[in-house]
Amino acid sequence: MMVRVFVPRDTTALAMGADEVADRLVAEADARGIEIALTRNGSRGLAWLEPLVEIETDAGRMAYGPVSVDDVAGLLDAGLLEGSTEHPLAHGPTEAIPYLARQQRLTFSRIGVTDPLSIADYLALDGFRGLETALTLEPQAIVDEVKTSGLRGRGGAAFPTGIKWQTVHDAPSDQKYIVCNADEGDSGTFADRLAMECDPYMLIEGMAIAGLAVGATQGYIYLRSEYPLAHRILDEAIARAEQAGYLGADIRGSGRRFDLEVRLGAGAYICGEETSLLESLEGKRGMVRYKPPLPAIEGLFGRPTVVNNVLSLAAVPYILDRGGEAYANYGMGRSRGTLALQLAGNVKRGGLVELAFGTTLRELMEDFGGGTFTERPLRAVQVGGPLCAYLPESQWDLPLDYETFASVGAGVGHGGVVMFDDSVDMAEQARFSMEFCAVESCGKCTPCRIGSTRGVEVIDRILANQDRDANLELLDELCETMEDGSLCAMGGMTPFPVKSVMTHFPDDLQR
Amino acid sequence: MIGYYDPNKHASKDLGTPARLSEKHIALTIDGQEITVPEGTSVLRAAALADINIPKLCASDNLEAFGSCRMCAVQVEGKRGYPAACTTPVEAGMQVTTQNTKLARLRRNIMELYISDHPLDCLTCPANGDCELQDVAGAVGLREVRYGFEGENHLSAEKDNTNPYFSFDPSKCIVCSRCVRACEEVQGTFALTIDGRGFDSKVSPGQMEDFMDSECVSCGACVQACPTATLMEKSVIDQGVPEHSVITTCAYCGVGCSFKAEMKGDQLVRMVPYKGGDANHGHSCVKGRFAFGYATHGDRLTTPMIRDSIDQPWREVGWEEAINFAAERLKATQAKYGRESIGGITSSRCTNEETYLVQKLIRAAFGNNNTDTCARVCHSPTGYGLKTTLGESAGTQTFDSVMKSDAIIVIGANPTDAHPVFASQMRRRMREGASLIVADPRHIDLLDTPHRGDAQHLPLRPGTNVALVNALAHVVVSEGLEDHDFIAKRCDTEAYQAWRDFISEERHAPEAVESITGVSAEAVRRAARTYAKAPNGAIYYGLGVTEHSQGSTMVMGIANLAMATGNIGREGVGVNPLRGQNNVQGSCDMGSFPHELPGYQHVADATARSRFEELWGVPIDDEPGLRIPNMFDAAIEGSFKALYVQGEDIAQSDPNTQHVEAALTSLDCLIVQDIFLNETAKYAHVLLPGSSFLEKNGTFTNAERRINRVRKVMPPRAGKEDWEVTVELSRALGYPMDYRHPSEIMDEIAQLTPTFTGVSYDKLERLGSLQWPCNAEHPEGTPTMHEIDFPIGPGRFAITEYVATEERANRRFPLLLTTGRILSQYNVGAQTRRTDNQVWHDEDILEIHPSDAEVRGINDGDWLGITSRSGQTVLRARLSERMQPGVVYTTFHHPGSGANVITTNSSDWATNCPEYKVTAVQVEKVSRPSAWQQRFDDFDREQRHFLKAAKDPAAQGVPQ
């Protein structure tokens, strides 16, 4: 019997040389007269082990990583194909690797396990069961299930998904839309990409369920142009899903329609903001719209539109399959279900960690992340992307949940966790926050358009010790102006990281 | 004493966001004051209505809310944060606070950011005293800019001075996007955008082009919208901020836009479209907005002049001498050649009052009906056709009606060039989803409206209108798309049955007429269905309908189509002639035609005539007088010897120029009253200097029957308003008229014209404008006509047999020439050629399809001889895909172009409206001007010299 070998094909693995590793494996096996069955699976999300080669054995899949081209021969010599655990790169059964074993993977249960484009693989692991259930339900019942799950928007705003769907469901219109925000642009985030590259049918299924729930027949995935692989995989997956009757004019013979298309962004961070995204999707300049009207009432082309993050939609198949209650059983307080945390920055073991709400940053950074890559002491961590606060050690034991974080002026955001060691200059980080806003602002509202540029200048004056106290006061007032006066979260939240530096790392501004 | 329309009382305040028309009203509290407004109204507007003035920069009530400046931040009880009042709709029971310490600080801090990137040159800035940024900075109490002025900024951004009328100084720009939004929402051109993002955001014409190189059409909406000196009229930069203003009506085109003439003393600084104007709602075009410099041009005639023959130099004389000279000549002519030997032509550019007086002069003092007007050569078929079918010689709708149309048919009109402000309104409706159907030989710009919905083009061959409209009607009838209910209730059954039998004949089927019109049957069927099935279908048409041998037939065909589909008598529908000149409607209403007294009362109608006879104290001839072409023929034949022409340039505008010239040179006495030495005046014996629209009081009536006030903003250059001159001439002829003010003339019009009995200057002052009929039945006027019935009772379908024009292409003249207008120039160009509008169109060009050009070896810019059965002229070529093969096109804005040397005497069977739109021609490459053009140049040089000689008697001889 041929040995099944898995070499991931997601962007991280490819960046680490997975293609070369796969080629070498085939070549070496061939040279040795061994026939292997190579599967290009998705990533398990253990970025620190990529390329993570797996061998299927009677005892389950055995993991080796990170494997370089030069390791291949040695691994084969050491009994790779038999699942031997002798080699230093061997980790034993993949699912027993503590980093993975300790996670609570509801959404990311299939990533890395399957061939992302294989519908058979998807079906074998509960795929499309949520959609099949949804097809038996009244739209309102689907919405109710999502409400029961307590799912909140995973893009960062944490708005209850079920309530958003209810609004679109209730809005009368001859055309409604489901728009997936896949413009994943926060620093240190990659969970959307993993979902799309490693388990695209999950997103397709989630969107189709959303369409059934609210009466939308057309979906768009607004994908950032920097994800060319996800683009190819999604296009192929959509084509195959249509072929198999999971999309199109007559989903699984139900007579109900849902079409799906991928649209590429043009490289602007602001297009991750839902109203800019809609403008961009309509072919216009990515400029923020004011609200109300909410996109749920007047969204894409003025029609009621669900705009959800990839992870919100990706959570839906599980909820419909297992029931909202099952999902709601995870989490704490008003934050139900699991959160996909992405460990990045100065971290030893970067990767995706899906856990129920309630864990602490310290557990995450130490137990999973293993501390800093530089092995210097951790000093600060930015959770939730460039518009969220930098957290000092005093806040690392807070339970990760939306309300707790908000209460200290921090945010969970999209779950990106960017770690910094003690060599970090937090004044530079504050300056970077303003600069990021200056570069990425759409330019519509004044506080953001001019304020961010002035913010950089004021910080520069503080750092140059020019009228430091007056300028610190001005910076504080500028933050207040941007927070109170900006049209969207871009300008409105840029002050959060800046103020967190002023509050928690004041010494860095007093050099 | 009649006061000026007070802009402070009417629509002068910017309420921040557009009105909402909901029937549902919402009560809320703003700063403790209870306010009730229609649902959907913004908090900003609600506050402004209660005179609670929240600071704002990016908001303006002619633009949808944008929410970018954040100056209008407010606090709302129970709501988080500081929402912008402009983007926050009112809610029942809402409690809004607009002023407190927190909001004051927020606004001041935002203003501080603005000013950190703004030049501090208020005292030398052209907007000083007229700058919203300055006002708001004052209102929020900005006292310092803590950021300093050393930071990143746009202060050295380069000015764009390419547009002749306004400058663009991006260093002063606050990126509020009002200009961009005005270009999109108000004008509909989409020439402007914001380039870059964040701090680099900047206003960009096209893709960072100059204004002149961009798609900008210089309508001025952006200049109007700019809250700073970024987009600024050059006249204000030169002269400073105006100190008073007068509301008046534009003298270009039949849209009849209201403007604020902004003045310094008697100097006109700028014309600003007036928001309270019901025809234009604060919008304008390049002509009305900017091209007013002709009024003070050095070519203006300022002294009366006389001469015995046209080969003599002019003699400057006083008014009395000139008037008496004219009167004596007229009297002598009548004594010698009879009462019918003289006549007059009224002007569609002059006021109603002036036009009324000229026809009164002719009927009462000349004692004949030899009065006609330039509408003869443009919309006379409208008068005839609509009167015959619908019972009234006027468009049925108000302009705003188009905002309720679902399908809009435009036939033989080019609104974006000829009626730009109304075109913008059409485009707005098209962006809202209305379907457009254009029947025109050319691909007109309306078809290229950005962000429009469905648009269909029926590119018919010139001269085949009637065949096309019959085919459209055939589809309506044969596919069961008639509105039987409407027809049964509103139309004459017998006429309808006869028409139905006629139109049902297979020879009118789209398939049958395809070979005549050149339009595919499928396209015709689709268009007919679109129009007939739309809840509201409206038809707009222009001279491409009337200026044909079957102009009147076509007008009736249009009326048939509207009646058959029930598209008459409510908003959103109707039959709408787009009038060319500012007062075409008015000059027709005022009895300018030889067969009709004011109000379209036939001279043969004894009852009507007797009322006039009684008031005027003279008998009125009961036989119609001569039409303009008859006058020409009679002049050449020798029985018509003297003509009084007010504000009309028949030598340039009428067809077959050489024929017109022959007629004019046959006259013993030609009296021309005009503001310039126009082409006709070169044949004159008496020159009476006219007054421009800025120099007199009166009224114009636009294409929607709207009577608008024209107000004097400066004294007449030559000392007299035009109506005063007519009064003088009448007195000299022995028929004294006694008016002290044009309002008294209007009172007389109201007394004699059943559709005007409710019109008075007092009411116009009160209501701004009035749409006739305005009488006891409709005391405040009639925006939509024929709502209940037609003036003739039932509507009358007319049989519209298509008869091909005799002006057809053959081997000798294989191409069809059609003529039209261009945006920057107006009519004969006498006004616009004396402005900077010349930069856009300084010569008339012949547009020709590339395939026609190729077979003749013609390239762009080549000199082309264009020869018709009437004559030859020479123009430069422009290859254009807008044309269809076999059709060429030009304009007649420049007299030396001789466009009308080629047009023929062929005319409408009913009204003699010339067939300007179809002339069979041949085109070939040539190397020099035509013989006519050479003669024209010589004559022109000679006549200009005669004018100069009048000023400087020392100059002698004729220049070679």
From TrEMBL, chain A:
Gene3D superfamilies: 3.10.20.600, 6.10.250.1450, NADH-ubiquinone oxidoreductase 51kDa subunit (3.40.50.11540), NADH-ubiquinone oxidoreductase 51kDa subunit, iron-sulphur binding domain (1.20.1440.230). The keyword 4Fe-4S applies. Keywords: 4Fe-4S, Iron, Iron-sulfur, Metal-binding. Residues 427-472 form the NADH-ubiquinone oxidoreductase 51kDa subunit iron-sulphur binding domain. Its cofactor is FMN. The keyword Transferase does not apply. It comes from the Bacteria. Pfam families: Complex1_51K, NADH_4Fe-4S. InterPro entries: NADH-UbQ_OxRdtase_51kDa_CS, Nuo51_FMN-bd, Nuo51_FMN-bd_sf, Nuop51_4Fe4S-bd, Nuop51_4Fe4S-bd_sf, Thioredoxin-like_sf. Belongs to the complex I 51 kDa subunit family. This is NADH-quinone oxidoreductase subunit F. It comes from Halomonas elongata (strain ATCC 33173 / DSM 2581 / NBRC 15536 / NCIMB 2198 / 1H9). The lineage of its organism: Bacteria, Pseudomonadati, Pseudomonadota, Gammaproteobacteria, Oceanospirillales.
